[in-house]
Amino acid sequence: MRQLLFIPGPVTVSERVLAAMNRPLIDHRGPKFSELVERIYARLRPIFGTQEAEIVLLGASGTGGLEAAIANAFSPGDTLLAAPMGAFGERMIAIARKYGMTVDALEARPGFAVDPREFAQRLNDDTEHRYRGILLTHNETSTGVQSDMGELAAIAQAHGALTIVDSVSGLGATDFRMDEWGYDIVAGASQKVLAAPPGVAMLAISPRAWNAIEASKTPRFYFDLVKAREFARQGQMPWTSPVSTMFALDVALEQYEHEGAPAIHRRLATYAEAIRAAFAALGLEVFSQPGAHSVTVVTAKIPDGVDAAGLLRGLQEERGVTLAGGQLDLKGKILRMGTMGDISQTDVLAAIGAIEIALLGYGVPVRVGAAGKAALSVFLNLGGATPGDGQKSSAQMDAQTTGTSR
Ligand code: PLP
Known about the structure:
Layout: E1 4-5, H1 15-20, H2 31-48, E2 54-59, H3 62-73, E3 79-82, H4 87-98, E4 102-105, H5 116-125, E5 131-137, E6 139-140, E7 145-146, H6 149-159, E8 162-166, H7 178-181, E9 185-189, E10 200-205, H8 207-215, H9 225-232, H10 243-259, H11 261-281, E11 297-301, H12 308-319, E12 321-322, E13 324-325, E14 334-338, H13 345-361, H14 370-379, H15 394-401
Parallel strand pairs: 1-12, 3-4, 3-5, 5-8, 8-9
Antiparallel strand pairs: 2-10, 6-7, 9-10, 11-14, 13-14
The structure holds pyridoxal-5'-phosphate.
């Protein structure tokens, strides 16, 4: 059965991006590949919001990029402060501990973003500057929570420790200003908002972070960023590059540029709002809290009496809609629906209809049609404003996104 892919990465990629993967391979040490790498850097710069950072592309998934960032920026014995909001924030802590760093964790309450006051307090209390580094998550995919990265940046800057941001599922989804905000290393990946296949991690690294990387005593080989920079400066990647994924990423970034960041930010925010409205109409409690909602993934509690695994399996096998379940301690408790990738409003409405039918099958009392109507009301801008969309109506937005196969 044809599947509508609504997991929060990897995502549905456009036909043009898929077709790019079919091109004959080229020499990854030759001039054509260097041109492609330079084009990718140029298109990534505004997405990261940086002119000062050097960008390094790695043949890895997002976790590889994060491991490289942490291992290279710090040394065994360093103390870090992490502010996890879910499973991926915890993963960064696990990576750092594996490399012999000591990590203090400021855990956000489930469904909430980092509390800026608590974060500031922790850093203010560190009068001896024990913290060499700070680990933050832009968008926590396991809980559907998004941080206000501008606000957290000001607090982190006042302390002065080196900051690493996991923006794997956030990069390209909201305005990000690495230089202005003063973040040191920001990590992204090809298979999320950028809507290319998995296989390329990207790190934007500030001049200050490069000094720390040169001084780091952590043993490293495959993910040695000093070596990666030598190659990056020649428009290459260290080791054998994932050439086909790079072809696809090049086209995906061209499409990103063509649609334009503001339109993409609005599209994701509108999809997320429509899905939240539909979930509310279905009687599903949205897991993320107001003010902390992610635009790339919507999370909702599984109703009592519904078997999460069965619900997701049924949706996939009988209705052709693939959603994700919860991770770690949220396994079996929530479902997650992504907004990223080459999906249309029609696809969103179809998926919502499928969820409604599946819930009815479990005997959940659902007002038939209410969820679709709620989502449609958001798309048609019939009620309420779209978060992050102060100016344009959804109708205008539709006019903008028409022609981008959405
Ligand atoms: N961090 C976040 C916020 C993520 O969403 C993900 C993947 O979903 C990762 C890290 C790990 O990335 P990958 O699965 O590409 O290794």
